Amino acid sequence: MKNSENKRNKSILLFGISSSILFVILGIYLYTTKAETIDSSYSNFRNIIGIACIVFFGITGLISIKKLIRK
C-alpha cells in the first residue's frame, strides 16, 4: 500500500515540475516578445505577467524538485 502511495506522490510531483517548466517558458515568451499594438500599457502588462509567471512557477518548480529529491 505504501509503495503505490509513493508512486502516486512521485507522479504528482513530476506533473507539477513539468507544469512549472511550461509556465516558466510561457512567462519567458510573454516577457521577450514585442506587443504588436502601440499601446505601451499593454506591453508593460505583458512584461509584468511574464515576470510573475517566471518567478512564481520557478519557485514552485524548485520546491517540487526539492520535495522529489528528499523522498
Describe the protein in words:
The protein is mainly α. Helix content is about 85%, strand content about 0%. It contains two helices and no strands. Helix 1 packs antiparallel against helix 2 (about 40-70). The two termini are about 15 Å apart. About 5% of the residues are buried. The mean pLDDT is about 85.
Uncertain segments are none
Q: What's the total count of β strands? A: 0
For the termini, the CA-CA separation is 16 Å
Morphology = rod-shaped
Calculate the mean pLDDT score and round it: 87
**Strand and helix order:** HH
Largest β sheet strand count, sense and barrel closure: none
Radius of gyration: 17 Å
Give the class from helix and strand content and strand pairing. Answer: mainly alpha
Number of helices: 2
Oligomer: single chain
Approximately how much beta-strand content do the residues carry? under 5%
Estimate percent helicity.
over 70%
What descriptors fit this protein?
single chain; 71 residues; mainly alpha; 2 helices; rod-shaped
SSE blueprint:
Layout: H1 2-32, H2 40-70
Provide a quick synopsis of the model.
The protein has 71 residues and is an all-alpha fold. Helices cover 87% and strands 0% of the residues. It contains two helices and no strands.
